[in-house]
Design a protein that fits this description.
The chain is α/β, with parallel strands linked by helices. The protein has 10 helices and 12 strands. Helices cover 38% and strands 21% of the residues. A 5-stranded mixed sheet has the order 4-3-5-12-6, with helices on both faces.
Length: 297
């Protein structure tokens, strides 16, 4: 099917609206006025609509013309972005770059890096996502993300993925001062812990089966969407659980949360960033180099 609306016609329509007349539009487009008039006349005939009406010396859009121009400008802008993205891809710079950050980390570290990157290439589209547990690895495996940060190596495949350790995370079993376990005999045994509700962060996996780690409770859990919400819920005494030490240092100092020793402490986790080895993009390379020098502790 042949469509009467062409990019050239949209450019002429846009120029007439901006310049106010056919003659001024022709001058701006380096065309003769008759060529501009012919383009608009043909478009009106093909669509069977009137696009302009005269008001003095100005050519003013009709309601139909306004609708066509409004949506036509979106097409022109999209076409320009498409051309720019094709050039960027040809030069090795990904036009769109997706970063998934595990909920175990705050996002504070990434924004200064993005600001630095925008000084170099301000027109790259960067998307930041929050993922949890297996969802972080899945985002990379299923191409939702080009780079994942804060993933545990045990959740990643060994083939086709590069893992760079960024931090070791200590897990603290924390409760609110008002919680029943705050008065229990220490160190806490697993049998005692199992009698209390755990607050857990939901795995954000969309395809694979969701996972859970460091959950010892025999009671129904309270499930929340992020580490931040888990911490809030535990501060309110709604449940207990393991929390990354680096996320609750201030809360422990203020005694909003209490760290309780366990008879069987859990081992620390190695967190890292990961990307597919087949990805040779320059945006990925830039972020990996910068993040490799960043102190996450």
């Amino acid at each position: 099917m042949k469509y009467p609306i062409t990019l050239d016609a949209l450019e002429v329509l846009d120029a007439i609206d901006q310049k106010g007349s056919f003659a001024a539009a022709a001058n701006a487009l380096f065309r003769v006025p008759s060529a501009v008039s012919y383009t608009m006349q043909k478009l009106e005939q093909d669509l069977d609509v009137v696009l302009f009406q005269k008001e003095g010396r100005r050519a003013v859009l009709t309601p139909a013309g306004k609708v066509l121009l409004e949506q036509g400008r979106e097409i022109l802008q999209a076409t320009e972005r498409l051309a720019i993205n094709a050039k960027k891809t040809h030069s090795g710079w990904e036009p769109v770059f997706n970063i998934a950050i595990d909920s175990i980390l705050t996002f504070d570290f990434i924004y200064p890096l993005i600001a630095q990157f925008y000084e170099i290439l301000p027109d790259i589209e960067i998307n930041i996502y929050e993922e949890v547990l297996g969802g972080t690895a899945e985002a990379l495996i299923n191409n939702r993300a080009d780079l994942i940060i804060g993933a545990g190596i045990e959740l990643l495949p060994t083939q086709g993925v590069k893992f760079h350790k960024i931090q070791e995370v200590e897990w603290i079993f924390a409760v609110a001062p008002t919680h029943e376990l705050a008065k229990a005999a220490l160190p806490l045994s697993r049998q005692v812990i199992e009698q209390h509700r755990f607050v857990v962060v939901r795995d954000s996996s969309r395809i694979q089966a969701p996972q859970s780690l460091r959950v010892f409770s025999q009671r129904p859990v309270l499930s929340v969407p992020s580490i931040e919400e888990k911490i809030k819920a535990q501060c309110l005494g709604l449940g207990v659980g393991f929390v990354p030490a680096h996320r609750i240092e201030n809360l422990l100092e203020q005694k909003i949360l209490i760290a309780l020793p366990l008879a069987e402490p859990v081992t620390p986790s190695n967190l890292g960033m990961a990307w597919k080895t087949i990805n040779k993009g320059k945006v990925l390379r830039w972020f990996v180099e910068q993040l490799s020098q960043h102190d996450f502790s």
